[in-house]
Queue: 3 jobs
Job 1
Amino acid sequence: MELPLLHSSDPVSYTARIVAAKRAIEQLRASPLFRDPYAAVLAGDEVDALLSRWQRVAETRAVPLEQVITKRTRYIAVRTKFMDDLLNSTLTEPEYRQVVILGAGLDTRAYRLAWASGTTLYEVDCPEVLQYKAQVLQDITPTCTYRPVAGDLAAPEAKWATAILEAGYQTTVPTIWLLEGVVMYLPEQAVHLLLQTLCQLSVPGSVLGMDGVKVGSILAGQRARNADRGRVVRHWQFGHDAPKQLLASYGWVAAVSEPQDIQVGGRYPRSLPIGTETPDPDDGRGVWLVNATYLPC
């Protein structure tokens, strides 16, 4: 089955299948950082396409294929585990039974996690992504109350917020929000509107999991686009070097980590570069992950 969103003008939709493929490739490891039995079928032929491309890279550079695979999948693997751990730890508290994944892409948490009884999960993304996922996973039953909601996070009117309210979202209970692999693809104005909207929809104690990139990574992505390379990074638009301060301005108290700080069996050693093959250590590139709580003054 060919995924029509590969040719979409929406870069988040375009990369959804690549991210699913990297999650699927993680499952081939002896000890994957997470379990995702549905990523491969959603990724389709993108798994073989990535492995073939990486095999050529390994041959050109005379390095083992496993080394290339580890490098090209490590961030997605660490990020997925980070967000899984945030969800699982927060859901141990009985007041957290409402989850919203914004820009969900081909996320499979609604199907693969052991959700607490009474949990409702809203997924927001463009209609073609949600329809594709529903078609591929039509024989799989979600392990929570699952409510997909069509919406465009970049739209200036934030109509997605109205859509989740119409789908049953409750503004009176704490929410766990996930913004995984999203904000770097949005214009700066759209990011600020998104954070403002989260404030309007959240009660104190709500939790946010989010990742992003530094400004230097945006500049590197622009260079990749000019050189007609970088299928993913060429679409990046928004970077920020102080995510803790950014979120504080909207009432979120954040703990910020870099992937090297997350102890997951040495999967993200500091000796490996974050961006391209030979980055300048002072070029400002990098990624960050956030676990934040909404505590407005």
Job 2
Amino acid sequence: ERMKEYIAVAKNGAGRYQMRLALAKELAAEGNLRDARATLLACTADDWSRTEHWIWLGDIAYEQDQHEEALQFYRYASTSVGHEIPFSPWWMEESLYTYLPAQRMAQVLVDLGHYAEALEWAKRVLEQLPTEEIWEEARDEAKQNIAAIEQAIESN
């Protein structure tokens, strides 16, 4: 209730955005995906430059087997891939602006049978992963995903 009160009265858009994310996370943890979704849809009014909410909305839709809707939300999130992360006084998860949107796009496109576009996004995942050695396992998985999509394309 306090989170909802803050959202209703706060003048700081970036602060409201962050509070909406926190509230949506709590609502989803309680199993209230309908209200979590509604909360996330309002995020663009508070901070148009951020894309975390699009990933979360896509994840909710994907979890409910609404792949076309998930695809559209992931498309919105993917607009940030390869570009500078927006400024915010709040902590932001870099992965939500680099490889995760690309990964989600590849995943849902495979599920929808759009293999050529899925392959493009799978390659972008590999491009966007951090280069540190600790990410080697993730790079190996990305390469395996690319190979699997290429094999699916050859089979069709």
Job 3
Amino acid sequence: KHDISQRCRMKKISLPERPQWRDHAQEVGFTFADMHGERYWDETSAYAFSLSQIAQDIEDPSTELHSMCREAAAHITASEELMDRLAIPQTHRDLVAQSWRKGEPEIYGRFDLAYDGTGPAKLLEYNADTPTSLYETASFQWQWLEDQMAAGTLAPDSDQFNGLHEALVTRFAALFAPETDLHFTAAANTPEDYATVEAMAWAAREAGLGAHYCDLEKLAVSDEGQFLDDQDRVIGTLFKLYPWEDLLRDEYAAHIAPSGCLFLEPAWKAVLSNKGLLPVLWQMFEGHPNLLPAFFEADIKDAISGHGPAAPHVAKAFDRAAAQLAAGHVTKPILSREGASITIHQHGQVIESSTNTAYSQHPRIIQAYTSLPQHDGFRPVIGSWIVGQTCAGMGVREDRSRITQDLSRFKPHFITP
């Protein structure tokens, strides 16, 4: 245990940019360092942390949160009611449930956490299926650290919470025999997605495995029902940067079970990458210091009206959280990306709403609002990365908005000596 009253808030420190960093970015294929006319990678400043902040407030809680999520996955996949609440298509619920029961392996995921340096960090959501920003977290910000220490900008004994690449290598080596062929796929002409799958493939190759890339649009199904790449090679294991929420609604989903192909991430991740996970976690672990109160919007309506099978139970939990929710809450569709269709309420007023409403048709959850810290007009979110079942590194994104959206900036971080 630690005394958070003695902890300092996280710091944002202005630093000189490396003179040739843009040239280096082009050389290594980091072509999306600028996007939509805005900086994406921004090293004009960096976030500084102490070792205790990282270890006690980010690393250990993230590992614990992932363990809790696995308990939730077991609970959800065994419940037809919860599968329905999470809008898992009826046709493929057996695929999802069997994926969990068979213990199909997971590779990675990313928690988004609200944290100001004093703890405890609060879980905003879990990007458990197709999180991006992997390359810039694992590689480019580590190179930044080494360059800044070499230049004397940072102390020579500075560090970074970043064992992400090494953890991925170890994970692949533990799961697959040497020289096993893996396939990797993402939508064509999406540099950020390609960087993520290439970072994965790089780790697989370093683990002694074969790694073949194929555009998502070029995958095919053989007459025998097996998945094929663009050279007609049979795919035995496929890492796909294509979300299960879409794949389960795609015509190709019918071929998954009979194909014999192992998917990474596995189908059971569909219940963790869904924001319906958040009220399930609160139901299972109410009061946990790293969780925010969260409820299905439909449950709250039932509880208020006194109707519905879970109404009394939900009503009691809602009453315990009512004051916190009244002070501030966020409505989120169970399926949403990059902040789309999210609305923040405080004291009965809408204080911010995303302009992208692409996911507004989905059922919603309500989660207690926690404000992000502000630094120079930007609000940072911590992305803590899970590899296997352990937290292995982190990245920081910041946005001017209270809702972290697609124009957020990636900021490097370091641990002070």
